[in-house]
Design goal:
The protein has three helices and 35 strands. By secondary structure, the protein is mainly beta.
């Protein structure tokens, strides 16, 4: 008997943030599910039976050009390229698109395509940079508010480092540095507003293959200001090109019309203009679409042919990791160094998935030359470990900072690799050891690996419906010397991660049956 396909987990890493920095990153496309094949077969008109199924068409462009295009592992040409891909007529077919260019970061994403569909894919590829080494001696211009991002912002072929920092008055300043031969030189500095909140994904929003930077400022519990900052080629200015007011209910980047350019979806106060100062909070926010219209950003209340609804899952903060395929170690996404702590732990990666037995599967790889763990159970928080947060009521308390009863925190300990085994413990909403979770740890040449299968009785997650979303955070805690201060967070899937602030978490979005 055939099993139903397992749901696809889409946590928050933006496709656009190919560096892995950003809340976000691989921006994000809504993965729209079609009617189930068995139902479609019943509804299929007689005239369609036996008809030839046309392939889907992908037009792939990169900057710079010349990237190898692979679909499902098969080489299809180099960019710019037009690729034909087989697809089902009555339901979307899953394909993996990979773009490789020597000396540049790989772009790897999943596309769901229908037969006969024409899809445009535009990607800006950035030069490969050793980010931990680059940040090791870096002195930021002020307190860093939300990690770092890297991208080619001005089409000069070189990578820029983007930092959102606070000035002495507490205002947010976006500072951009040229990265040449691992040397940083400041090239742009833009004031983006008071009460800064975070650095959002670096993403091409205008179709010119030059990414824009989004900053989010907090104006209180309910209100936010999204600021879009961009540089233009041929010596054009770098600065603010759009501001829009939004509420705390949500925002997201995704390509809603398949043209290869991401749009901004956000919850807007009813009286909010696209440009200008932030409006007061509204009891009835409107879900809006912000898109580029040739020379400016234009706000719209709907998709082409469909109104936006607050219940749509794409309105959550979300980033993607890929579904478990042949190996739980495939599709790993980078964990981000937390501000001021990049030297403690060099790097880390993770993947999340959901299997047919309804386990949440976490694969975590940590580079750490000195693993210190001398405790067991909940006391393992003192040593090297990983903490996983799950906010089960994302819609109900999206803007709440303080963890409450629906927030679960799990501790994953690698053990000491000398007889003390790996284990799982629950830290919130109660404190206890967990016996019915499977966890494996492996010592590697430069760190360790963790593979955890967490049943819904532990996570509190029931089998999800298509589009269900939960808050999600993965953080690596490091301690180098026994008997010294307890472990502290050094890496996370959010560059602004704070264990006492749930609004710094990302999300998991389930796609599948």
């Amino acid at each position: 008997m055939n099993q139903r396909p397992a749901p696809l987990l889409c946590p928050v890493s933006s496709r656009s943030s190919v560096d892995g920095f950003g809340p976000p990153v691989t921006p994000w496309r809504p993965l729209l599910r079609g009617i189930a094949c068995c139902v479609a077969a019943v509804l299929c008109p007689r005239s369609a039976i036996g008809a030839e199924t046309p392939p889907a068409s992908l037009v792939v462009t990169t900057a710079p050009p010349g990237a190898k295009v692979r679909v499902d592992g098969y080489l299809k040409g180099v960019t710019p390229a037009e690729v034909r891909v087989s697809a089902a007529r009555w339901a979307p077919t899953r394909h993996r698109l990979t773009l490789d260019l020597d000396g540049h970061e790989r772009s790897d994403e999943v596309l769901w395509l229908r037969a006969g569909e024409d899809r445009v894919v535009r990607r800006g590829l950035r030069k490969r940079v050793d980010m931990p080494a680059l940040l090791a001696g870096f002195v930021p211009p002020g307190p860093v508010l939300e990690g770092y991002a890297a991208a080619n912002l001005d089409a000069d072929g070189d990578t820029e480092l983007v930092v959102l920092a606070a000035d002495p008055a507490g205002n947010a300043t976006l500072v951009v540095y040229d990265v040449r031969e691992d040397v940083l030189a400041e090239c742009y500095r833009v004031a983006v507003g008071a009460q800064p909140r975070s650095l959002l994904p670096v993403e091409d929003l205008t179709g010119d293959l030059i990414p824009e930077v989004l900053c989010l400022s907090a104006g209180g519990k309910a209100d936010r200001v999204l600021t879009i900052v961009a540089a233009r080629p041929a010596g054009g200015p770098f600065g603010v090109i759009c501001r829009c007011s939004c509420t705390a209910a949500g925002w997201r980047l995704c390509d809603v019309n398949g043209d290869g350019v991401a749009e901004v979806l956000f919850s807007s106060p009813a009286s909010s203009p696209v440009s200008g100062t932030m409006a007061g909070s509204s009891p009835s926010p409107q879900w809006r679409l912000l898109h580029w219209d040739g020379g400016e950003f234009v706000e719209s209340p709907s998709f082409p042919g469909a109104a936006l609804r607050p219940s749509e899952p794409f309105l959550c903060r979300s980033e993607r990791v890929e579904r478990l395929a042949e190996s739980p170690w495939s599709g790993l996404e980078p964990l981000l160094p937390l501000p001021g702590r990049a030297a403690d732990t060099a790097s880390g990666r993770f993947a999340a998935s959901w299997d047919s037995s309804k386990h949440l599967i976490l694969s975590i790889e940590v580079v750490d030359g000195n693993v210190v763990q001398t405790e067991v159970g909940t006391r393992a928080v003192a040593g090297d470990h990983v903490e996983v947060w799950i906010d089960r009521d994302l819609a109900g308390d999206f803007a709440e900072r303080v963890p409450d009863a629906d927030d679960v925190c799990l501790l994953l300990s690698p053990g000491d690799f000398m007889g003390m085994p790996a284990e799982v413990a629950l830290l919130r909403p109660e404190t206890r050891t967990v016996a019915n979770a499977r966890i494996e740890s492996e010592r590697t040449a430069n760190g360790y690996r963790l593979l955890a299968y967490l049943p819904h009785s532990v996570t509190g997650l029931r089998p999800p419906t298509d589009g269900a979303a939960v808050g999600f955070a993965v953080a690596v805690y490091n301690r180098d010397t026994p008997g010294k201060p307890p472990a502290k967070p050094v890496l996370a899937n959010s560059g602004g991660y704070l264990e006492t602030d749930c609004t710094t978490f990302r999300s998991l979005v389930f796609v599948g049956d």
